[in-house]
Amino acid sequence: MSLTITVIGLGQMGGNMALTLKAAGFAVTGSDVFEQARDRLASQGLEVAAPEALPETDVYLLSLPTSAHVREVLESSPGLLAIAPKGSVIIDTSTSDPSVSRMLAQKVAEAGLAWLDAPVSGGPKGAASGKLGMLLGGDEVVIERVRPILEAMSAKRTHVGGPGSGHVVKLANNYLCAAHLVTTAEAVAMAAKAGVAPEACLAGLNSGSGRSAVSEVNFPEWIVSGRFDSGFTTGLMRKDLRLARDAAQALDLPLPLLQMVVDLWHENADRPHDRDDFNHIASPILDNAH
User: Fold this and answer.
1) Cβ count near 54 (within 10 Å)
2) Scanning 8, 71, 199, 251, which has its CA 20 to 30 A from the CA of 243?
3) Quick one: CATH architecture of 4-162?
4) What is the spatial distance between Cα 251 and Cα 244, in angstroms, rounded to a whole number?
5) What topology does CATH give the domain 168-287?
6) H/E element holding 67?
7) Domain boundaries, the chain
8) Active-site residue numbers?
9) pTM of the model as a whole
10) Each residue of 136-176: pLDDT tens digit?
11) Within 206-254, where are the H helices?
């Protein structure tokens, strides 16, 4: 029998994931606190429900901005801890605070439900095409149970440990991405000031050990092209960097470079603005080369 799914959070990521799962043949209901989001997905053929009228399904897939939103969906009255059928699975695809995720995972288990953190990468395009990358934190038996859903949504899945582990590795990943955007921008700016075109510099970097996903994808796709339409905002990256910093501090682990990256991303609240595409962090650095 095919698993039934409720997707909670119908933004660019959650909405596209819901449509992808529907196209794969699953019975999917979408929900969002914003009526406009529900109407937009309903117009694309998705069954929708208001937050106060969630159906009983096998899986509740969350795509929400912060851990606070995830906690509210679970613990509010009535939240999923109270209304989800016993044995159903909570999948959190948000980028969340690992300590909160571990606390919630325990409450989920005590309520007779199962937990899986599954933060994603690949942006709205990956969500729409079913080609996301997923970092999985939870029990192997839970992963096996929902594997058809994960396979419909993603091109690559990596199980990194127990509950909360997926969110730990996601924060580590986003820290590196944020740092690479800055370091690659500085390298390209240095080359440009010395008379080397950005495209030529990037080709050289990508043939050597300095390459990264940022130099291979972000720069040509969104920065050099001037499109800046990745679907991920500066505000969300700043939030993730603060979570990474807080996680390190909670572990009493001094990471001075991480703090420098956090500070740099928060240096100017207007350039880039929180609502701007996160790749815009490179713009002021590259402008200095002109």
Assistant:
1) 19
2) 8
3) 3-Layer(aba) Sandwich (3.40)
4) 11
5) N-(1-d-carboxylethyl)-l-norvaline Dehydrogenase; domain 2 (1.10.1040)
6) helix 67-75
7) 4-162, 168-287
8) 170
9) 0.94
10) 999 999 999 999 999 999 999 999 999 999 999 999 999 99
11) 213, 234-250
